[in-house]
């Protein structure tokens, strides 16, 4: 290469040497400016405890290799770790979970593992937004609501926590799209805030709070446990009264009790899936999932 350059006239030698020096400097600076995750993170698996949160992480960072511990067709309410699950946890570069209060079965196995506890966002928000007395009440509420991915007001906070702890770049495109969706959802649901509805499963508490909706009753907070006859009668009375525009049911819990709830009543039944079962993690389409939930609510509340 040097012999070829030396054979050129002096003017061209200077130009070529200057160009090569510039290219070398640019290459070095480019290598230094690339985020750490570009070389070290995208080729390593990130395991997320539940399917919808894995969908969220994959959507925010499409270059990551994301999978879920609890699959879309499993209920996290009664999940038990298997030996194959332990292998997946140990082979993952990092694990994103919802903390010991919501997923106690992961506490010991993650003790010496790089992990992100998304539930810490709840504590951070409680300390920054409320006084001590209100914080205590809020903590009690949140302790019984593990559906973190259904809280529209904390999606960006959770992504920021993951970004910081896993040294990932800011998911600017996803956040911009999400903020636009939030404006659209608020406009779509605001006219229906006074319309009542009943949910089979207490999964949408934070969604209801975020959009100031009127959830009259829930059938159960834990679908794996039987519902008392007295409560079934109370729910039926609300449905029979006409106060509820619809009854939300979930594909994961099509039990006989559902027929008892609305049999013989003229009530709209709307299917809704909080677990994003129809959305593959690899597709990274969390916003489509949120759009489907928005459609479910507008279908219910439009009278």
Descriptive report:
The protein has a domain at 188-301: 3-Layer(aba) Sandwich (Rossmann fold), CATH 3.40.50. 48% of the residues lie in helices and 14% in strands. The protein has 13 helices and eight strands. It has a four-stranded parallel sheet, with helices on both faces. Helix 6 runs antiparallel to helix 7 (132-142) and helix 11 (229-241) packs across helix 12 (256-262).
Radius of gyration: 25 Å
State the secondary-structure class.
Answer: alpha/beta
Say what oligomer this is. single chain
The CATH architecture of the domain at 188-301 can be named as: 3-Layer(aba) Sandwich
Q: Keyphrases for this structure?
A:
four-stranded parallel beta sheet, about 300 residues, alpha/beta, single chain, Rossmann fold, 8 strands, globular
